[in-house]
Each structure stands twice: as C-alpha cells, then as structure tokens.
Amino acid sequence: xxxxxxxxxxxxxxxxxxxxxxxxxxxxxxxxxxxxxxxxxxxxxxxxxxxxxxxxxxxxxxxxxxxxxxxxxxxxxxxxxxxxxxxxxxxxxxxxxxxxxxxxxxxxxxxxxxxxxxxxxxxxxxxxxxxxxxxxxxxxxxxxxxxxxxxxxxxxxxxxxxxxxxxxxxxxxxxxxxxxxxxxxxxxxxxxxxxxxxxxxxxxxxxxxxxxxxxxxxxxxxxxxxxxxxxxxxxxxxxxxxxxxxxxxxxxxxxxxxxxxxxxxxxxxxxxxxxxxxxxxxxxxxxxxxxxxxxxxxxxxxxxx
Length: 305
Prior knowledge:
By secondary structure, the protein is mainly alpha-helical. 52% of the residues lie in helices and 5% in strands.
C-alpha cells in the first residue's frame, strides 16, 4: 500500500483504527470519534469513495477545518482537528506520507477574552537559573519547581508523588490519579531527575514517609501540603526578581504549555502532558485565525511517492 494507490475508504479507516489500537493504545471511544471525523474529511476530499493519500493537500485541510468552525461548536471543531492530526501522523508513521501534514491543521479559535497568564521564555528560564540549591529546603523547592515547570505537574500531584513513583531504571515518573481519572507515565527529563536525586541524597531528612517531598522545619519528615508547593513557587519568583502575572503552581503549568505550543506541540500533546480530561480545557493556550492561515500555509511540499 503506497501513497499513490487508490484505496477503499474502509481500508484506510481500518488501518488507522488498528494503528491507534495497537501502537498507541487509544481507547475505543476515542478511536470511534477520530474515525468519524476522518471519514467525513476523506469523503469530502474524495467524494467518489476511493482515497489517494498522496493527493491530500494543505488546502483540503484548511478548508475542512474552516467549514467545521462555521458548523460546529469550538469543542467539536477541536476534536475534528485533533482527529486529523492523529490521522496524518499515522500516515507518516506507516510511510504513506513523508511530510508533516499534521502541522497544517489550524488551531481552533476560542471565545476566551483574556490571554493565559504565563511567564515569557526569558523570565521562565531566569526563574529556573535562579533556583536555590544551597540548603536542604532549597534543594527540595528546586526539585518541586522543576517537576511543575518541566513535567507540568499540579501542586496536588507533587505532594502525592511517592518514592516508588520515580522509575530511575526506565527514566519515567508515574503520576497518580490525574484528573483524567487514571494515572500517567511522564518521561523523567535529565534536569528533573538530577534535581530529584540531589534532593533525595543531600536534602531530604530521614523519615518513614513514602512521599518524595517532606517538611524541613515543624513536623520534620511529614509530607508537604499544596500550600507549601505554592509558597515554594512564590519564594522562587521573589528570589528571581520576577513580577509574575499570577502566583502559584498554575503559573508554571501555563508557562510550560505556552512554551510547548510555541515549539510546535499540538493541543493533544499538551493535554497529555498537563493531564487534561478534555481538549476544550487545553484550547485556552491557543487561538488562531483560520482565514489568516490560508495565506501562510499554502506552500507545502507534496507527499513523496
């Protein structure tokens, strides 16, 4: 099966569904939703029913999303866009397309009137560089902030992080009971791993507690609370001399999300990192004018045969 073959619609959808099931482990409900929108897209581009993968162009993608924005609610349009991105990644993964057609799928405009409050990249990195590592509590707070700034953990997820949740051998962190109703495995980025190891080896007091982060003054060795996490962020901002637009851990999550978006991550990837139940929540990080995208996205390399 090549990009030049004229394929039956059901054959393409079946291969896509199998890829989602076996390679990505996507649940049946999500697979059905993705297939529904991909079916409509392919039927729109190839009304005769025979699909030629190599003939799909950026104009087809932009036009489809543009029509969807006029027909559906934003949450539905975002689901359609996410479905297309997943489908185009599948085409690239199995060698039916050589280009990144998923990058042509527009972000969905939303009705939020204000911008997400976050640190710009310069301030974000200034905060990280200024973190204190000269005391046990400084090592703890540095590891806490890096878990939020680099992994996108919530304050509650930081406080519940257990020693056994850090899988050093496989370089992953298990996050328990996210808002998605199940846990998640996140990559243990080297910078975060080094900060955790430094704290565990040189800062954490002896304690029977299984939580990674514990108190260092009153009730030494007891697990920390969410308020301690927020206080660590506020202290770090003051130390760095940053006049932040908001306080607390959500500032770091917002900053991570906007940085990921600026570097080309899609909303579905950002939702996975942040543990959002719905892409409607993640939509706050991006609003793109579909009409404007028509002008900038037209030049696109054709798929290789």
